[in-house]
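Reopening this one. Same input as before:
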Amino acid sequence: MNSLQAALKTTITLADVIVCQGLGGPMNRLYSYILPPELMGAQVGSLVEVPFGREQKTGLIFALSVKDLGDEASQIKLKEISALRLLPALPASYLAFIDAAAKHYGLNAAQAAKSIVPFTLLAKLQPALCLSEDLEGLKASAKTGKNITEKKLRKLIGEKQGFLEKLWAERKITHSLAEPRQAQKQTPKITLNPEQAQANTAIQRALGEEQSKEILLFGVTGSGKTEVYLEAIATVLAQGKQALLLMPEINLTEHLYERLAARLGEGHVCKWHSGLGEKERSDTCLKILQGEPLLVVGARSAILLPFVALAVTIIDEEHDQSFKSHQAPYFDARILAGLARNSGSVLLYGSATPSVALFERAQRAEVDLLELKARHGAMALPSVQIVDLREELACGNRSIFSRSLQAALKKIIAEKKQAILLLNRRGFSTYVFCRDCGQAIECASCSVTMVYHAREELLRCHQCDSVTIQPKTCPSCNSARIKYAGLGTQKLEEEVKKTFPEADVLRLDRDSLRLKGEIERVWSWLQDGERESRAQILVGTQLLAKGLDLPRVELVCVLQAESGLHFPDYRARERCYQLLVQAAGRAGRRERQGMAIFQTFEPEQVAITLAARQDYLAFFEQEIVARQRFGYPPFASLLRFVFSAPKLETSKNDAQLVAEALGAEWGDSIQILGPAICPVARRKDQYRHHLLLKMGVSSVLSLEALGRLVEGLGLRSQLSFELDPTDFL
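Same output, byte for byte:
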């Protein structure tokens, strides 16, 4: 009688498995397999090898159940799990996190796991194994006492189901421990000022109580929030636990890593982002699963890692929209961090300009509020000047540099300091048109104008990223009178070099960062002591406002400060305010008070005037009243539907069909805005309509029920929906 027949006599253990399909990730459903007696060491969260079609695939056991089958046993035709991977099981808290994320985003368990679990990486994990001394025969065959991988060991022993798994369960096979790193000289701690010390005391108390708690560290730019983070992280590592520090940008991750490693020791700090090689990510993932005390500093995807002993999660620059994914299912790392909290862990947010929604929760005491009202070292916040560009034009100044900016830059150059010029538009010219027929050159696949990029001498679509060569004549009337209009960072860089040849000029935006190693080159350029004999001007987009700590920067200017204010987004004022305050905060962080200049055609805009005063509380009080009056978050939940189809009528009709079905099903409990054509009406050759659903924050409408309703409508469009959308284009 084989093992399967023996197990089927009375009971059988069934495993619901999420199967990994290589680069495509797991399938969108669970598959049932029989867990043979030889592999009874497997548990929920174990990684296993399963037969799938004609291949062996890696799977994750999501649930186990014992069935009393009786006479029906002969009817069962399920396949057996082939092997148990010699890896630590994913912790129960991680599986609970997957389940919570599935419910929040209206997904089934397999769909959520597909988007969360780093399956491809886990499937390839082959840590070095160490064989115990009483396995001399096997060690001799392997010709090594350690550093043999699971794959090689299985090939060596052949088809002996359960043999290695038994040795693994008996701890006769273990993972080889990495050689301990030599102790490195660590940078000394900085003495906390009274405000920092008070905030640190509150955070340490929360860590000591081991109660799940959310804390907002609300500190002005340059107030030393990172030093407070470091104190919390050091405590967690000393307890033998794990910490996670999320940053809004990959480039900030690299920038901060050196500082963290210098303070905590390189062996205790790991990076995590999409730009890392597979080996580095594999090593980090294994350390996490083995429960090593370490800090992971990374971009938003780091929240998806299977932490075993996560005690504190820190979200720096919490206000930043980069924490929200722009691909379905549109995960938000800030939301996931709340769902991922273990019992007793602390979730710490930090920002000088926290999101309105989070600050409103702090006002209701749902989140503990800690404040740092002054800059570290008693440095003053930068002085801010608003320049009315209408007055500049009236005085005959048609330059992109206001008179105030020109004077300030000349002073920076004379004193050999650094300045930042921020323009939130990439490229050289933002649109290209014919001066004879007036036709602007649009993307062939999207209903937007192409942007001219001078370095590559091509036009690029900022929606689908398609490119076309620089036109010599108008594609509409064949005229050679082509005009390049608008201002982008490439043109700004050129104008700065032309106007201020005495200064070194460098540009930092997503186009320049396409070059490998560019961020390291920029950082080295800014830190190079030999360059202190010349002034430096850094030109770029909003990347420059994201947490960079540049000691020699004494001037920041935001050109076109009102850009983004008129976007079709209820958060437009909030985003404008945050960008301006964060940009100004890069100035004067060390020796002398810095200066910021906001150039604008709309100086009376509240977001601009309050940003100049750096008065967050006044801005919040005005913004929260408007949100409540018009029924926007945090006083409602939003759900955006986007319908895409090759024909305009198809997307329009499907949007109308869904709107009518929603109204009929939920009636007065929801508010439907639209349907309407999207501001970007065509993207990647697909015509787009959208509608917005407003619900109460405690709405009983579930995304699962919504999905079932839509599935029964027979839509011909591709439909995506996003909870709490950040993009309305």
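So the earlier flakiness isn't reproducible anymore. For the record, The radius of gyration is 29 Å.
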